[in-house]
């Protein structure tokens, strides 16, 4: 109903925060390349195994003076996993309570997504490249609704069986074979590269194993450092290529981890990997941190400590590109804004904030990991929990009621999915 949209609009307006003007437009007109780091958790940055850095290339990027990195950035996915991360990054809308919003609503809902906005407002060419099957998570339909002009999936790549592992082409091969497509995109472009090799159960062929497995004895955990290391090497190769072509200077790279790699079924093994003796529900919550890094030679970098999550990426990126998000229905907030509310909702109603954390029916002090017992602080926690419930349910209303079809701002032309055809045509 249209009236549902009014309450959403009111909420969004009341909760709008002014983006940080010091960063407005610093990457204006630059290409954007999203690099999706599959199942990559923040703790891997700087992590060493047997004296060896597991992710030397990403570590270098993290510390680079042109990288804006966030060390309190959390994934907020639900059952839709990768697709929920994509939904949040492209739309600043949450995934839904059960299943994948991209699968359930991706085909027929109206969206006002990053690719459509950038192409309409700033003349961007928009594309996704992924070495897996195009129909996975309903990408081949949802991307059209998001306004993506191109989607190169598995059938765009001439591959041999040995190049394929798990969910798609091995990352090094995928990125190398994507180069010719990247080079042919008219600039400025907005591109997402989706890696897959670092995916549960973390298998890797012998010749690509260049770091030893960990020794927790948990077989689906112990391969993790190996596939992570391989992904990191693939990123290193991509960076070399971007520098060689000079594309790096014209591009804003955005790295993000989509969700955890090690689930809470493996707390025992995580205790060993992290050295935390009592690794329980609180620690598991803390380890939902994933990387978020913006890199561009023009950026003044640094590691920021704002508590935020995937829902906040779109408003942050829009500000860096100099596009105002004031009139948009976005549930996130600029991560660089000093007014960011720093309340990170998780899909199940749990949350993390700099002061309090909610896991299940317990509240904790974020800094000390102690349970909240005082009445006064519990009351504060309940206020935060209510805020979380409100934003999730309003986002759900937008998604399940397809409310954006009623929102017709003058600056946006509704996406016509029949404009796009992702079938590979003869070269
Ligand atoms: C497959 C990949 C995996 O294309 O994106 O999705 P996930 O299982 O991580 O949600
Ligand atoms: Mn994933």
What does this protein look like?
The longest helix has 26 residues, at 375-400. The N and C termini lie far apart (46 Å). The radius of gyration is 21 Å and the shape is globular. The mean pLDDT is 97. The protein has helices at residues 2-15, 56-63, 81-91, 101-105, 114-122, 139-146, 171-183, 219-222, 224-245, 267-274, 281-286, 313-320, 375-400, and strands at residues 31-37, 48-49, 52-53, 67-70, 73-74, 125-130, 150-152, 164-165, 168-169, 189-194, 251-257, 292-295, 302-304, 308-309, 344-345, 351-352, 356-359, 362-365. The strands form 5 sheets. It has an 8-stranded mixed β-sheet, sandwiched between helices. Strands 15-16-17-18 form a 4-stranded antiparallel β-sheet. β16 (351-352) and β17 (356-359) form a beta hairpin. It has 13 helices and 18 strands. By secondary structure, the protein is an alpha/beta fold. Bound molecules: (2R)-2,3-dihydroxypropyl phosphate (GP9) and manganese (II) ion (MN). The site of (2R)-2,3-dihydroxypropyl phosphate has 8 residues, from α3. Belongs to the LTA synthase family. Its main location: membrane.
Mean pLDDT: 97
How many DSSP H or I helices?
A: 13
Number of strands: 18
**Strand order in space, largest sheet:** 7-6-10-1-11-12-4-13
Structural class: alpha/beta
Envelope shape? globular
Helix percent band: 25-40%
Radius of gyration: 21 Å
Low-pLDDT segments: none
Instruction: Spell out which ligands are present.
Output: (2R)-2,3-dihydroxypropyl phosphate, manganese (II) ion
Strand content of the residues, in percent?
5-15%
The end-to-end span amounts to: 46 Å
Domain Sulfatase N-terminal: 30-323
Membrane topology: Multi-pass membrane protein
Keywords: Cell membrane, Manganese, Membrane, Metal-binding, Transferase, Transmembrane, Transmembrane helix
Pathway: Cell wall biogenesis; lipoteichoic acid biosynthesis
């Amino acid at each position: 109903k249209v009236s549902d949209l009014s309450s959403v609009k009111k909420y969004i307006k009341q909760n709008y925060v002014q983006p940080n003007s010091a960063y407005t437009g610093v990457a204006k007109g630059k290409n954007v390349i999203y690099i999706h780091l599959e199942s990559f958790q923040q703790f891997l940055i700087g992590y060493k195994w047997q004296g060896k850095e597991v992710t030397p290339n990403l570590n270098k990027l993290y510390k680079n003076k042109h990288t804006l990195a966030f060390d309190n950035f959390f994934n907020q996915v639900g059952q839709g996993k990768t697709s929920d991360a994509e939904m949040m990054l492209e739309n600043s809308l949450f995934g839904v309570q059960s299943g994948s919003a991209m699968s359930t609503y991706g085909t027929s809902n109206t969206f006002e997504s990053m690719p459509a906005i950038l192409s309409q407002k700033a003349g961007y060419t928009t594309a996704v490249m992924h070495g897996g099957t195009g129909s996975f998570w309903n990408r081949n339909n949802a991307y059209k609704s998001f306004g993506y002009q191109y989607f190169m999936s598995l059938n765009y790549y001439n591959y041999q069986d040995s190049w394929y592992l798990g969910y798609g082409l091995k990352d090094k091969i995928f990125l190398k074979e994507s180069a010719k497509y990247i080079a042919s995109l008219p600039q400025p472009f907005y591109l997402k590269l989706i890696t897959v090799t670092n995916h549960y159960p973390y298998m890797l062929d012998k010749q690509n194993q260049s770091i030893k497995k960990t020794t927790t004895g948990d077989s689906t955990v112990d391969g993790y450092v190996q596939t992570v290391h391989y992904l990191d090497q693939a990123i290193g190769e991509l960076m070399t290529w971007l520098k060689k072509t000079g594309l790096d200077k014209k591009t804003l790279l955005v790295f993000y981890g989509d969700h955890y790699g090690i689930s809470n079924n493996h707390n025992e093994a995580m205790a060993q990997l992290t050295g935390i003796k009592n690794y329980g529900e609180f620690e598991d919550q803390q380890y939902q941190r994933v990387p978020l890094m913006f890199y561009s030679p023009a950026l003044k970098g640094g590691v920021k400590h704002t508590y935020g999550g995937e829902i906040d990426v779109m408003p942050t990126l829009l500000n860096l590109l100099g596009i105002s998000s004031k009139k948009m229905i976005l549930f996130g907030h600029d991560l660089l804004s000093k007014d960011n509310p720093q309340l990170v909702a998780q899909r199940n109603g749990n949350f993390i904030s700099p002061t309090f954390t909610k896991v299940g029916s317990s509240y904790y002090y974020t800094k000390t990991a102690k349970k909240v017992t005082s009445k006064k602080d519990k009351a504060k926690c309940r206020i935060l929990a209510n805020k979380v419930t409100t934003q999730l349910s309003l986002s759900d209303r937008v998604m399940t009621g397809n409310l954006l079809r009623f929102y017709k701002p003058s600056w946006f032309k509704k996406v016509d999915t029949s404009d796009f055809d992702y079938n590979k045509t003869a070269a």
